[in-house]
């Protein structure tokens, strides 16, 4: 049976908190139908790149200052060790949770808090959600010592894509063990820069190939893969992958994505899902000025412009913030959670709003 979230709410990932238990409690309170584990970027090891780089050969630095040192004499041995672990998992049957592809004690605190909380949750979720930095963002965000993008080093590109695929599979396996459907988003903010001068030499086919390897791995593990981009991009790149959920900033960039309305309609007719980032997170004044009524009006107008069957759009919709809330204040982050939940209720017709 196809996944039909029917305009239920969920989040993108990050929160401006320092307590993983508190973050998990808030997520379960506001998003009980599709909860997710929390990323808390107040910790350097839980940021966009750092949370998923453990065990990569040649990786050096910490927090936002990571880079690859392929000139280090230890690189060759680290490279060989990586592939030994990779083969142990993919061919020798080593459980992922016992491998370098599992979260460590430092990077996995939000994930562990989530796994422990779900069995005690009051209601049974429709699905659980995880997230991981996608291969394009990782390979264009990390450089070598000379400042060259990791994407342009064939060894590093292959290692990063394979590591992300297995880290994603690890998340799916751990969450599925709790008896729920699992959604796994690839967070790809850097796709906003695809086609720019800094990315010359990276082809559309290369990007689709890397994304597809991770997506296939998630699907084979029984998960529902999504791709989230919080800005504008060449949306045909995502629509030409086998991904099941397209997540975008509907508040800020609907006018760009609606140019692909025929491809989006075909996407929905295949039973796939669009995650509508209708609650603004990138501009505090927008967040303060909007309410459920104004955002519901925005949704209604966008559904009409998309031109597909409105009932199908709603059945195959998720309602989300436009991006994570890790850079907002606690107060505004809670406003995002409240608006996302209440907008979802308004769209589903489960509550009345003035």
Description:
The mean pLDDT is 96. The chain has helices spanning 20-30, 75-90, 109-117, 135-141, 154-176, 204-220, 235-239, 250-257, 261-269, 284-289, 292-306, 310-315, 330-348; strands spanning 8-9, 59-60, 67-68, 127-133, 181-187, 224-229, 245-248, 273-279, 317-321. The chain contains 13 helices and nine strands. It is an alpha/beta fold. The relative contact order is 0.14. Helices cover 43% and strands 12% of the residues. The chain starts with 7 loop residues before the first strand and ends in a 6-residue tail after the last helix. Helix 1 (20-30) crosses helix 3 (109-117), helix 5 runs parallel beside helix 6 and helix 11 crosses helix 13 (330-348). The protein is globular and about 60 Å long. Strand 5 (181-187), helix 6 and strand 6 form a beta-alpha-beta unit. The chain has a seven-stranded parallel beta sheet with strand order 1-9-8-7-6-5-4. A two-stranded antiparallel sheet has the order 2-3.
Element layout with pairings:
Elements: E1 8-9, H1 20-30, E2 59-60, E3 67-68, H2 75-90, H3 109-117, E4 127-133, H4 135-141, H5 154-176, E5 181-187, H6 204-220, E6 224-229, H7 235-239, E7 245-248, H8 250-257, H9 261-269, E8 273-279, H10 284-289, H11 292-306, H12 310-315, E9 317-321, H13 330-348
Helix pairs in contact: 1-3, 5-6, 11-13
Helix fraction by DSSP (H/I, runs of at least 4) = 40-55%
Stretches where pLDDT is under 50 for at least 5 consecutive residues are: none
Largest sheet: 7 strands, parallel
Give the N-terminus to C-terminus distance in angstroms: 36 Å
SS strand fraction: 5-15%
- The order of strands across the largest sheet is 1-9-8-7-6-5-4
* Count of beta strands: 9
Mean pLDDT: 96
